[in-house]
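Exercise 7. Given the components listed, write out the predicted structure of the assembled complex. Treat all entries as one system.
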Amino acid sequence: MIEFKNLSLTYPNGTKGLKNINIKINEGEFVVIVGLSGAGKSTFIRSINRLVTPTEGELVVDGENILNHNGKSLRELRKKVGMIFQSYNLVKRSTVLKNVISGRLGYTGTLKSIFNMFPKEDMELAYENLKRVNIEEKLYNRADELSGGQQQRVSIARVLTQKPKVILADEPVASLDPPTSHQVMKYLKQINQEDNITTIVNLHFIDMAMEYADRIIGMRAGEVVYDGPASEVTEQTFEEIYGRAIREEDMRGGEENE
Amino acid sequence: MNKPDFVPSSLYPAKTKRTLTLSFIAVLGFYLISSITTESFIINFFLKIGNITELVGRFFPPDWSYITVIYPKLFETIHMAVIATTVAVIISIPFSLLAANNITTNKWLYNVMRFILNIIRTIPDIVLAVVFVALFGIGAFSGIIALIVFAIGILVKLMSEIIEAIDMSPSEAIKASGGNTIQTIWYAVVPQILPQFISFSLYVFEINIRASVVLGLVGAGGIGQLINQRINFLDYQAVSTTVLVIFAVVVVIDWISGKLREGLV
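Answer.
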C-alpha cells in the first residue's frame, strides 16, 4: 500500500511540484495518472522511489515513511519499487541479457556484480522474464539493435527481474507508435493481473488511460484534481482535468494489430 | 523611384572595422618588437642556409653498424612506454570519474580534482623527467615515473570529458532498481566509455613512445640517451641512424594502434 499524506514538493528554484497530495493506492491496483505535461505526474511517480524528494508531509510505502530513507534503506526501497522510463534507459552498448540481469544488482554484492557472477536462479529468472515479453531470441543482441517497442519490452523484463512489489511507469509509451503502445500497455496490464504487482503509469493519452486503468488520478498544476474508477470517467472528466477541450493529440488511437 | 536615404558602404559597421584595423596593427607591431628584442629575423634563414646544408650533409650516410647498439635501448624505450601506459591507465580510471561533474556531484571534490589535473598538465614532460631523475637517479625508472604522471594528465582530461558527455538515463535506471554507486558506474557508465577508453589508452601509448625519446636527453633512460651521447661525440651519422630507427618504430606503432582503434569505435 502506498499512502501520500499532505505531501508537497517545492523545487530549489521555488517551483511547486506537488501541492498537498492525499492519496491512498492499494495493493494490486492499476492506476493511471493523467494530466498535461508539467502537471506534476512525473514528480508524483518519482517521489515513490525517491528519485525526487518531497519537502513536506509523509509518504508511506509498505508501512514505512520513505522520506528519510538514505543509503542502504533507500536501496532497499528501490528494490521493491521498479521503474520503467519513457526512453527505456537501457545501456545501449550492452546485451539484452546484461540489461535484464542488471535488475538483480540490488540483490547482488558489489564484487560479484563486477565480475558478472550472478547465481544460476537469477540467470534463469532473467531468461524467463525475457520469455514473458516474447523477446528471448534477442538474448545476446546489443540493446541498440532493437526497435523502440522491443527495447521497452526489455525494460519491462528488467523491472520484473528485480521482483518488485510496485511498478512505476513514467510515460512508457510516449516514444512509441500506436500499435506498439498498446502492446506495451497490454504487457503491463497482464503482469499487474498475474503477479498482483501494484502498477502506477503516467499517461497523457486519454483513450489509453480509459482502456487500461482500474483507477484514474487526474493532476493539474501539482494538485490531484480527480480520483476515481476508470469506469466512471468520461471525456467530460478529462476536459475538467486538462482545463481545456480535448484535442486529437490527446488520443493515441489505433488498436494493436496482432 | 525615390533616392534611397542611406546606402551601406561596407559589410561591417565602421566601429568593427576600426577595431579590426587597430588589432591588426597591434599584432603586427608585436611581431616586430619581439623580432627585434630576440634578434631573430626571418632573413637569417636565407643567409645561413649554407650552414644548414653543411650540417645536414654530416648526418649522411647513416652509420648502419650502430644499429646493434640501438636495439637494447630501443626495447628499453618500448618497455618504458608499455609499463608507464599500463600503470597510468589503471590510476586514471578512478581519477577520471572523480573529475567528471556528472559522476562527482560534490562540487568541492570536483574542483579540487580539476585543479590538481590542470597543474599536472602544465608541467612539461621534460621537466617531470628532470625532477624524477633528481629524486630517483639516472635511469629508466625515473623515466617511467615521469611518463606515468605525464600520461595521467592527458588520459584523465580526455576521459573525464567523455564521461561528462555520456547518456545518464541508464544510470538513473540502475539507481532506481536499487544498485549502489559502484554498480551504477560499472553497469551504466563503463559500457558507454569503454571503447573510447581503450582508444585513448593506445593513443597515450603512442605519445609515451615519442615522449620517452625526449626523456632520454635528461638521462631518464631509453633511446634518447643514445642521441644525447652521440651528439656530444659529434657522431652525427650514428644520430641519423637512431633517428631513422625511432621514426620507423613510431610509424609502425601509430599504424598498429590506429588499426586497433578503428576496430573499436
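Discussion: The first strand of chain A starts at residue 2 and ends at 10. The mean pLDDT of chain A is 91.
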